[in-house]
Specification:
With about 110 residues, the chain is mainly alpha-helical. The protein contains 4 helices and no strands.
Amino acid sequence: MKEIVGINKGRAMDNQNLKYIKAKNKVEKEKSFYTHIIIYLLVNLVITTFKVWNNLDSWGSFTNELISIDVLSVWAIWGIFLLLHFLSFKFGQGWEERKIEEFMNKELSNDSK
């Protein structure tokens, strides 16, 4: 009887560890996404500043350079990758969680044998 209680207690601990690992994985992915946003903003602001800095002759030349294809393309292209990162972060976790659970269940079933 003690052995059965020990096995159930072990599975409960494994289940709790699995939940912790899943939660930690989600937090790491969220942190990675927010870091990506910060880097996106900082780097693009620096690039935009350098590209626009050379055309500070008048307000018209400043605004023309600010909305030029050179400046906007950097924001747009990287923005597409940021959007893909967001979509994978928000909606792409289902298959990953299923695979983790599948591997964990295989490990748990192998450990119980």
